[in-house]
Amino acid sequence: MHNPNASLYLAVLYFIISVVLLVLPGSDLPRENWLSAIYFDKWVHIGMFALLVFLWCRVLSKRNYEARKLNTVFVQIALAAIVYGTIMELIQGLFIPGRSGDVSDIIADTVGAWGGYYFSRWRFIKK
């Protein structure tokens, strides 16, 4: 039997995992080598935030919103994810040993959040 709250549980779990990953001390992260040449860290940020936005849009797509309202909600989710990413970068720079806040990570988070929004809009909003 399908649990109607499964999407919500998954979104909350993923959010918690993202918080843990973003506050890990620098000494717990793998050392960059050839991965830095392909900007692997930025691709991880893009993927993390695209998935974060998608999972929350999925939760709210199950509500009985008309298409225009649902799109507004999706935009709000993307904007909230961007604010979250920015705050996490500030926290990294100010409070996490061995980590630094990085504007390029904020840009990657933003790209991921908007990517998650556009994919969710395509996937969940029926025209």
Q: Mind explaining what this structure looks like?
A:
The structure is a single chain. With 127 residues, this protein is mainly alpha-helical. The chain has one domain (6-25, 36-124). 75% of the residues lie in helices and 0% in strands. It contains five helices and no strands. Helix 1 packs antiparallel against helix 3 and helix 3 (40-61) runs antiparallel to helix 4. It starts with 5 loop residues before the first helix and ends with a helix.
Which short descriptors sum up this protein?
5 helices, mainly alpha, 127 residues
Protein topology:
Layout: H1 6-23, H2 34-37, H3 40-61, H4 67-95, H5 103-124
- Provide a count of the helices: 5
What is the N-to-C succession of helices and strands? HHHHH
Class from helix and strand fractions = mainly alpha
Please identify the oligomeric state. single chain
Which consecutive residue ranges, at least 5 long each, have pLDDT under 50? none
- Rg, alpha carbons: 16 Å
Strand content: under 5%
Distance between the first and last residues' Cα: 30 Å
| Residues in helices, as a percent range | over 70%
